[in-house]
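Q: Hi! First time asking for a complex rather than a single chain. Here are the components, and I think there are two in total. Is that enough to go on?
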Amino acid sequence: GQQLNQSPQSMFIQEGEDVSMNCTSSSIFNTWLWYKQDPGEGPVLLIALYKAGELTSNGRLTAQFGITRKDSFLNISASIPSDVGIYFCAGNNAGNMLTFGGGTRLMVKP
Amino acid sequence: DGGITQSPKYLFRKEGQNVTLSCEQNLNHDAMYWYRQDPGQGLRLIYYSQIVNDFQKGDIAEGYSVSREKKESFPLTVTSAQKNPTAFYLCASSIWMAGELFFGEGSRLTVL
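A: Yes, that's all I need. Here is the structure of the assembled complex.
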């Protein structure tokens, strides 16, 4: 089946730093989604990408759909304490159900 | 407001007891899902349903059961056959099977 490798698994950064995380797939996807999960809550959709090469921003967040359609990147600029949480990538193709990455746990030092 | 409501938020049960977690959505979504999340781990699919009166096993269905009698509701029963039921359970829905998932706030089950 489809597999998603998300990295890094965890990050501990200083407030104000920029953050980068990525996901790679063993197969081609036609949709990439990025979710954030706050502690004790359900994941919330941050950004959706539908076209190879697409670059989309949502405030301080920017995500890209890789040209090969096998990867995606999420960047967070000027991190703040409320950025703490787990970030999940998800993707699918050809009408299949979403496959989720293992998550990146972000911790921010004030 | 439209959304997905899970209840209860926290639940404690004794070993050997069945427990049912509620999930209701008013988004008019056809597809609904149940995921399990263990501490520091990702999401694992338990069951999913594409349409009323139909559901399919996910990756870790053993020890769980579901029903889909109404479009809005997809309850999950954690049975006594589930050997390690303590976890955070997430319900989600989507317009169709390949669509974006919208999640509820989760239910944390602890077995004493």
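A: Chain B touches chain A at residues 4, 6, 40-43, 45, 48, 88, 90, 92, 97-98, 100-106, 108 (CB under 8 Å). Let me know if you'd like any chain examined more closely.
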